[in-house]
From TrEMBL:
Record's subunit section: Forms a complex with SecF. Part of the essential Sec protein translocation apparatus which comprises SecA, SecYEG and auxiliary proteins SecDF-YajC and YidC.
Gene Ontology biological-process annotations: intracellular protein transmembrane transport; protein targeting; protein transport by the Sec complex
Role: Part of the Sec protein translocase complex. Interacts with the SecYEG preprotein conducting channel. SecDF uses the proton motive force (PMF) to complete protein translocation after the ATP-dependent function of SecA.
UniProt domain SecDF P1 head subdomain: residue ranges: 305-433
UniProt-recorded Gene Ontology molecular function terms: protein-transporting ATPase activity
Underlying gene: secD
Name of this protein: Protein translocase subunit SecD
Domain spans labelled SecD export protein N-terminal TM: 2-104
Topological relation to the membrane, as annotated: Multi-pass membrane protein
Length: 616
């Protein structure tokens, strides 16, 4: 019979609509502005007396508290107004003191029964949720210097293995110089080093106290090192941002030496900046013996006591790059420590260095590359100049009791916060070169809220105009198209929520465009039905022909648009990708609703029934 679906098809459409409705519902429950309170120890929480005092202090300040939740990670105080978050944080800090960490947060308010079904709201982008935008610049010259320092350490080890005497190694610009005892040693050294390091230009130079071998990086090698520095820093920053737990962050390259980081929803910008911009790394070195030559040792002060120093070897056993995992914990005396696991290569190097040096000290050196800014005169104008510098400090100097393997611990840290941040940096990896903040922009939650309100208003206006047009143009069938349009919007929001896509202002533009395009299929179908009726075709056959014959045109038109959206997603970045995702999903949901859902409504209302006049 014409215009009748089998039962299974109606049930399939009903199931899809029900699932779409469930997974779209969480978006009706916006996040609550909140203040997160955590302690240094995960097993310690605020007691009822402290919570009551906090509630009283906040009430006196006129700050409305929506709810207080106790969670494993701490206590969450939900507020009614986002504008009061900063004031609430300051009051809580004054009441609790320095033993607690207080940070701004946004807490989901999705009902428990929806969370039990795995339903959650859409992630909102930086322009809708608020957050921070950082532009960072990679110090390319420092990347070259670091690579040359690593090469110098390897060369010194090779020369000692070959029993070739050398006096000193130094790095200046893109050149590594080695001072050897005589020309014979220099010839032997050049032969050995050139085999291991072929990407250098070698030059013999005269030295006042010996024969000098200069190794200069080739232009190709310089480009490779700089490209590696950018890519490695991108990977490290992504790992760090993931550790922060930020939903849908953006970390991407911009130009030859810059990286852009966007963290939606982050309110504690100081903490985010400290973690993202940290350039710290670790070095493990053996303590120097009394008879070690001066050119092989270095004097380094302790990080928490600059008056105390120690002599350590210049050669590095391993760096933080060899760490595969790290976690914060506490020792038997309640002092913070970091538990470390090394990768295979790092474990082998550590075992080889410690098994032959039992009873000797091993230092853990914390290295942080920083920069100072100063104003200098250039061409008659005052310009800002960055002066990089490196801070080194011993955080632990312990005696090797037995050969170490892949797992051990670092002690001597000042606070649990320092231990947590050090563990985070080691887990995420060290930077291949220092980075500097060149731009910082903060988007507040209030501005994000205004963007959301304007975006929702644009969707409402767009949908209202489409609804009115379809009602005026197609009368009763316009009602069918509008029901399909509403279903399309629900399914689109549900799909974005289920996929964990990030909604931005361009994404909202994609939704508005989708609403406008969603009725195109129904327009084609309804106009085809009109043509068949004008050609004196019976009404039921005209409806059937309208849906069947318009199908090819609908598919062709939507596939071309879908291809454009795929191209935008593949070559675009950031907001362009968000627009492409929304547009692609909108095309798929509009085809489903315009062809299947609208026809199901028509079939149920007029299918198989005697109809004398069709209101279309």
């Amino acid at each position: 019979m014409l215009n009748r679906y089998p039962l299974w098809k109606y049930l399939l459409i009903l199931i899809v609509l029900l699932v779409g409705l469930i997974y779209a519902l969480p978006n009706l429950f916006p996040e609550d502005p909140a203040v997160q309170i955590s302690t240094a120890r995960s097993d310690v929480s605020l007691d009822e007396r402290q919570l009551e005092r906090l509630r009283s202090e906040l009430d006196e300040a006129g700050i409305a508290v929506k709810r207080i939740d106790s969670e494993p990670s701490g206590t969450l105080i939900r507020l009614q107004n986002a504008d009061q978050q900063l004031v609430a944080r300051d009051i809580i800090n004054q009441v609790l003191g320095e033993d607690y960490t207080v940070a701004l947060n946004l807490a989901e308010s999705t009902p428990a029964w929806l969370e039990g079904l795995g339903a959650s709201p859409m992630n909102l982008g930086l322009d809708l949720r608020g957050g921070v935008h950082f532009a960072l610049e990679v110090d390319m010259e420092a990347a070259l210097t670091q690579r040359l320092e690593v090469n110098a350490s390897a060369i010194r080890e090779s020369l000692r293995d070959e029993r070739i005497r050398y006096r000193d190694t130094s790095v200046e610009g893109r050149t590594l110089t080695i001072t050897l005892g005589n020309e014979e040693d220099r010839s032997r050294a050049r032969e050995i080093i050139s085999r291991e390091f072929p990407n250098f230009q070698y030059e013999n130079r005269d030295g006042g106290r010996g024969a000098v071998l200069a190794m200069t990086l080739t232009e190709q090698q310089v480009n490779e090192i700089q490209d590696y520095a950018i890519n490695q820093n991108l990977t490290t920053l992504r790992n760090r941002v993931n550790e922060l737990g930020v939903a849908e962050p953006l970390v991407q390259r911009q130009g030859p030496n810059r990286i852009v980081v966007e963290l939606p929803g982050v309110q504690d910008t100081a903490a985010a900046k400290r973690v993202v911009g940290a350039t710290a790394n670790l070095e493990f070195r053996l303590a120097a013996r009394p008879d070690t030559p001066d050119n092989e040792t270095e004097t380094i002060a302790f990080r928490n006591n600059e008056d105390r120093t120690a002599e350590v070897m210049r050669d590095v056993i391993i760096t933080g790059d060899s760490v595969s995992s790290a976690s914060r914990s506490f020792d038997e005396n309640g002092r913070p420590q970091v538990n470390i696991n090394l990768d295979g290569t790092g474990g082998t190097l550590m075992n080889r260095a410690t098994r032959s040096n039992i009873g000797r000290g091993m230092a853990v050196i914390y290295i942080d590359n920083q920069t100072r800014t100063r104003m200098v005169m250039e061409d008659g104008e005052m310009v800002e100049q960055r002066v990089p510098y490196t801070e080194r400090g011993i955080i632990s100097l312990a005696t090797i009791q037995s050969a170490l393997g892949n797992s051990f611990r670092i002690t001597g840290l000042d606070s649990p916060t320092e231990a947590e941040e050090l563990a985070l940096l080691l887990r995420s990896g060290s930077l291949a070169a220092p980075i500097y903040f060149v731009a910082e922009r903060t988007i507040g939650p209030s501005l994000g809220k205004a963007n959301i309100e304007q975006g929702v208003l644009s969707v409402q206006i767009g949908m209202l105009l489409v609804v009115l047009f379809m009602l005026v143009r197609y009368k009763a069938f316009g009602v069918v198209a509008n029901l399909a349009l509403a279903t399309n919007l629900i399914l689109l929001i549900a799909a974005l929520s289920m996929l964990g896509a990030t909604l931005t202002l361009p994404g909202i533009a994609g939704i508005v465009l989708t609403l406008g395009m969603a009725v195109d299929a129904n327009v084609l179908i309804f106009e085809r039905i009109r043509e068949e009726i004008r050609a004196k075709m019976p009404i039921q056959q005209a409806i059937h022909a309208g849906y069947e014959r318009a199908f090819t045109s609908i598919v062709d038109g939507n596939i071309t648009t879908l291809l454009v959206a795929v191209i935008l997603f593949s070559i675009g970045t950031g907001p362009v990708k968000g627009f492409a995702v929304t547009l692609s999903l909108g095309i798929l949901t509009s085809m489903f609703t315009a062809i299947l859902v609208s026809r199901a409504i028509v079939n149920l209302s007029v299918g198989g029934k005697p109809v004398k006049k069709l209101w279309i």
